[in-house]
Design a protein that fits this description.
This protein is of the alpha/beta class and about 140 residues long. It has a single domain (about 1-135), classed as P-loop containing nucleotide triphosphate hydrolases (Rossmann fold), CATH 3.40.50.300. The protein is about 25% helix and about 30% strand. It has helices spanning about 10-20, 40-50, 85-90, 95; strands at about 1-5, 25-30, 65-70, 70-80, 100-105, 120-125, 130-135. It has a seven-stranded mixed beta sheet with strand order 1-7-6-2-5-4-3, covered by helices on one side. A hairpin with a 3-residue loop joins strand 3 and strand 4 (about 70-80).
């Protein structure tokens, strides 16, 4: 599946479409260059899931967790500063990834060996016009 974003105003529709089309799968690995909009898109997903008090990127804490009436528990990981898989185990990542909660993971390549088999890979790219292409690979 491909979602095209011409402007930031397209984010609410893109987030709603994403959630409807991902077959109730719950673990998402977001790939893209620094500054491409991974966090911005995840924040749009959280808003579409009914989360109002969003803390932004969990760059220093590695994970922010939220509760949604409609979607249950949601974890937003930013693993940019993660130094090892051992550090991921220390924050309890395995329980979150395999616990049935929604997990949105930035910089997933740092824990690729730990991800569940049915993880959905989300790749965000930008073009010369600063538009974004979100490609979703459901294995």
């Amino acid at each position: 599946m491909i979602i095209e974003l011409k402007t930031i105003d397209d984010l609410p529709f893109a987030a709603k479409t994403f959630l409807e089309e991902t077959d109730n799968r719950k673990v998402f690995a977001f790939e893209g260059q620094m500054g491409v909009g991974k966090t911005t898109f995840i924040v749009s997903l959280l808003k579409a899931m009914g989360i109002e008090d969003i803390e932004g990127s969990p760059t220093y804490s590695l994970v922010n967790s939220y509760g949604s009436v409609a979607f249950g528990k949601i974890h937003h990981f930013d693993l940019y500063r993660l130094n090892s898989e051992e550090e991921a185990f220390d924050i309890g990542i395995e329980e979150m990834l395999y616990g049935g909660d929604y997990c949105f993971i930035e910089w997933p390549q740092k824990i690729e060996n730990l991800l569940p088999e049915n993880t959905i890979w989300v790749r965000i790219r930008n073009n010369e016009q600063n538009e974004r292409t979100i490609s979703i690979e459901m294995i």
